[in-house]
Amino acid sequence: MKRAYLKPVELIIPLGLLGFIGTGVTFLSSVFTSTMRWGILAVLTIFLVIYRRRDVLGMLRYPLPWAVLLYALWGVMTVAWSEVPQLSLAKSLAFTWVSTTMLIAGYSWVMNHERAQTLDFMWLISVVALIASLAGQREENADTGAEVYAGLTGNPNFLGFILAMASGWLMWRAYLARPQNHRGFVLYLGLLTLALYYLYVSHSRASLLIFIFMAIGLFMGLGKFRKRLPSVLLVSMLCVMGYSSSSVVQDILTEYTFKSNLGVLEEAGSGIFYSREQIWEESYDLAMLGGLVGGGYGVTIGEEFQGELGSSVSSGQYGREQGNSQLAILEQTGVIGFGLYLILIVGIFWVCAYGLYVARIEVDRVAIGLLGGAVLGLLAQSVFEAWWVAPGAAESGTFWILPGALLGAIRRARLVTLQHPSSTVLPAQYVIAGQSHAEGTA
Q: Could you tell me which of 37, 35, 30, 8 has the C-alpha nearest to residue 398?
């Protein structure tokens, strides 16, 4: 059954996600302001409580939401000793609201849609990402000498992020179209190629990690990871040989990998993390000052807060660019907060692994692989961007909807196993888009 995605009930969750993305896109920022973002989230919360109450209660049966709430509770508790208590209170409550609402939203989307629509809560941000990539000029970074492309976002890392997320949805639609809709497959494959091209020219290396993790998840879902691994190794060997023997290839890869040209690198005497080294040094020093309990959620230790709290407090108004979520967690919530964060991350890893293990039909494994890959890719990206402690960030809203959708996909996959525990050939209702989803292992 096809869904009319322009119906109000079908638009609420995609719009809730777009509320976080739209603030960074020039042709949407006048409508999707930082204030509007919270208004949209409020509407989404009311919708879930009134119309999807069963899904709200259904989430409570899983340990992951409770781990999130435990971590959020510690963030609220840091208000008691925070250097800027009003800021810590506002940001910790915002984190609690965003994480729980988006978790439930992702779970609710999957539980109320068919298998073929599992990842379609990302369709709207994917369309916006593709449009945002089609216009703009390449600019030379004054510090590194590298040419970067920001499209209609003003920030190449932001463009790379939304294109990386769009690539996950495009891979999903291409996978579904492949067996019998050849025109659809070619269309989605072409759009995926376009997204990857602009992801490349954005020079957003952290966002490229997101795509790589999703691509690995796709191959694992297809059950072809081991089969394709020799080909991947062969291509890697050829790339190494090409890098060693060609100065042109060396220049191209050096500029992309090091986000700089050779002349700047030689002058600065720096390596692959040239654009992050100074930021990380400062973040590390302050993380060491966090101690057992931290300086307070959202706080920069030793810096006085001047001004008023509004719908958004950025590093330009208070604090600094932290450049690493893990160091920011140590600075703000201390060793205890970081320990709770690690418990949460271990839980997320377990959910991803369990999902691939329990899924018996290919379409479920692919959905779980893409969602799990996106989750792990964003966690890898958080090493380079401190969005974890910025609840209003685009990455934050996007991240928290993914584990919720992942839990929904796993529950649906597990129901197949419970209903057909010993069947080697599953009933016809599990065949999607002309594909035969027989029993198999990831």
A: 37
DSSP at 299: P
Joined together, the tokens standing for residue 90 give: 């506002």
Q: How many CB atoms lie within 10 A of CB 36?
A: 17
Q: What is the pLDDT of residues 103-140, one digit of tens each?
A: 999 999 999 998 899 999 999 999 999 999 988 777 76
Q: What is the pLDDT of residue 275?
A: 60
Residue 192 inside a domain? The answer is yes
Q: Which tens digit of pLDDT belongs to each residue from 44-66?
A: 999 999 999 999 998 888 999 99
Cα of 188 vs its chain's centroid, Å = 21
Domain that holds residue 320: 8-223+277-303+315-430
Q: Give yes or no for a contact between 343 and 397, defined as CB atoms under 8 angstroms apart.
A: no
H helices of 113-204, where?
Answer: 123-133, 156-177, 182-201
Dmax (CA) for the chain in angstroms is: 66
Task: Note whether 324 and 41 are within 8 A (CB).
Answer: no
pTM of the model: 0.85
Place 144 in a pLDDT band, splitting at 50, 70 and 90. Answer: low
* Rounded Cα–Cα distance for residues 124 and 163 (Å): 12
**What is the spatial distance between Cα 90 and Cα 298, in angstroms, rounded to a whole number?**
9
Angle between helices 85-111 and 394-419 (to 10 degrees): 40
pLDDT at residue 316 tops 50:
no
Total count of domains within the chain: 1
Please indicate, yes or no, if residue 35 is contained in any of the structural domains. Answer: yes
Tokens 């509770």 map to which residue?
73
Non-local (6+) Cβ contacts of 240 within 8 A are none
Q: Is residue 363 part of a domain?
A: yes
Flag whether 103 is in a domain. Answer: yes
307: left (phi over 0), alpha (psi -120 to 50) or beta: left
